[in-house]
Structure formats: C-alpha cells, structure tokens
Amino acid sequence: MRRTRCRSQSGLTLVETLLAVALVTLVGLACYKSLSMGIEVWQRSQQLNIEEDVAIFFDKLSFDLYNSFLFSQIKFEGNEFRFAFPTIVRTPADKSLRLGEDVYVDQIGKAEYFYDFNDDKLYRRQANYSEAVRERWGPKRELVSSVTRIKFRYYFLTETEEISSAEILDVLPTGVEIEVEFADTRGKRVMKKFIDIPVGS
After folding, report:
1. If I label 173, which of 1, 40, 102, 120 is the partner at 20 to 30 A Cα–Cα?
2. Given 3-state DSSP classes, what are the helix, strand and coil percentages for the chain, each rounded to the nearest 5?
C-alpha cells in the first residue's frame, strides 16, 4: 500500500508578498500626501490670521481715535512703541447701580496700544475714568502675535507746516501713522496705515 503525504502550504508566495508591500506603500503615500496638504492649509490659514489680526488692530485704533476728545486730566501720550489717549471706553457698570453683572456702559476713559518686546506681541488695555486719573489700567488684551517691530509716528499741523515726530508733542496730533512688521511663512512683512485724529484737526 502506498501512502500519499499531503503537505500544507501556509506560507506566502513572492507575488503575494510584493502585492502586500505595494498596497502598504500606496496607503503610506496617500497618508503622507493628506498630511502634507493639511500642514500647508494650516500654514496658509496662520498667515492669513496674522494679516487679519493686524487689520483688526488698525480698525480698533481707528475707532478709539474717532471717539477721542480733549480732556485736561487725561493726556495724549506716545512714542514709537506706545500710544495712549482719552477716549470713550466700554466697561462693566458700577455695582452700586445694581444694573446686573453682564451690563456694560460707555464712559470717559483711556485706551493704550503698546508693543511688548519680551513676547513680540501687540496689546491693548483700557482704563475707566477713575483708573485713568489714578494712572491705573485694566488687564491687557493681545491683539497681534509674531510682531517683530512696531512704529508709531505722529503728525502735527502748525500755522506754517506739518511736523512729524516719534513722540507726542505739546500740541494734539492731527494724525498717526502705524507701521507693523510681522513674521509668517513668507518671512518678514510690513503693513502700514495712516489714521486721522478728528479732535486734533
């Protein structure tokens, strides 16, 4: 009697191995492509975010300057890196009025825009009337990050000429030019804006 032996073939053939490697490679390439496209979209959105933040900063400063006024107890102050002036600020209502916790009112106060060299950010803070006359401030709020340089330049109109200065003089400025340099994926870039100051005109 002859016995036939059956051998079970449980191993992979060369073709099957090559197919598995090819499939894993294709899946890896697809994942890499998706990841790289996602990173590129994120970088573009970050770049647009900085530009939008600078534009919002310009709008906030324009609004505050439009509402600025001449007041003997609150002065216009400024240099190349800081600008403070009297304006109408929105603050929580006085608790003694019992208007509620979430009620805000407009009142005479002071706004300040300044650049912090330690963290390369541009901030805004404000003071209500009582804080302003005591030269105290509320908490600062970040407006723009990744700022490498900021420059305020003030313009004054005299009877004979227009003067520009890096500091506030004894007369009210008629306008201010702001230059913001920031860094993003395209390197260092600059945005500028000139804002008229109605109270100084």
Report:
1. 120
2. 30, 35, 30
